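I'd like us to work through together how a protein chain folds, taking it slowly. We need material for that, and I hope you will provide a protein of your own picking. Go ahead whenever you are ready, and we will take it from there:
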Amino acid sequence: MACFFRRKIAAELAKTLQQSEDALLPALTAVPVFKKQQRADFKLSLGALRINGILPSSGDIQLQTENLAAQLKPDSVVEDISVGPGLINFKVNRSLLAEKLLEPFGKGEGFNFGLNSELFDTSKRGTTLVEFSSPNIAKKFHAGHLRSTIIGNFIANLKQSLGNNVIRMNYLGDWGMQFGLLGAGFNSFGSMEKLKENPLQHLFEVYVQANKEAEHSEDMKHAAKDFFRQLEQHEGQAMSLWQQFREITVKEYQHIYKRLGIHFDVYSGESFYQVQTQEVVRELQSRCLLKISPKGTGVVDLSPNEDMSNICTLLRSDGTTLYITRDIAAAISRKEKYCFDEMIYV
């Protein structure tokens, strides 16, 4: 529909400038819609015409703009023409706009509305991986997760409609020191009976209690670190408890996603990349990129002057990994597995 108006305006310009329509189209663009004020629908850049050799590159560009605008007249397609700084603005006929907007629906083509535009003829198609929603396990799904979930689903739907092979991934926050605190807290305050009755509520209560305890108890802090160390070393009892937390959460989330009309092709998570994180660390070490900070943490220096003024921490002082370490490993793994053309984080 937009292409119809763009082509019509280009045709009139072509007559005036004695050029082909296709030569003028790159300089003619749609104007974004603003709620608070009504603007033109299309604009012609005189600068682009000068760069492309359609107009002389010397002389006053504003004078060129006004002279060209004076040669153009409103018609059945364009109801108003105005001049801006180096721009000619076109406002299309509103009745014709409504008619063209509704035309596909009258022909029974509404399901494909907007997708047969020539604007998409040159767009690249391939495999798109969209990571969205990505809540933390052992916590309730709340309003804060909706933004990523709804926008991510929209992007995935849009990419799929445009002909891309879309992989929808939910990258769960299922690893990290917070699970050391949750595991240690559950060992101290948890109840299997309550876990069966209201799983996420009980895990939330345990985490809050453990967090308060850790504020004044060194024993709880040490217990949390020890539990996470056990997870990183894949010790049986800690892994069993963690796996139970994960399965409970995914099951609860799937009910919510079903109600929202959203599906995922892959449920992934930070925990999938424990082995790969060590490979990332070794690769960084082999390239002399991983350095040890005065605090004993493993960092990569991102500062332009290599003065450690801007660093990214990849390892804690006890050798355990962080979210970013696992995220790097995940990105490498996804590229190798899915051979995507683009990956979108929402």
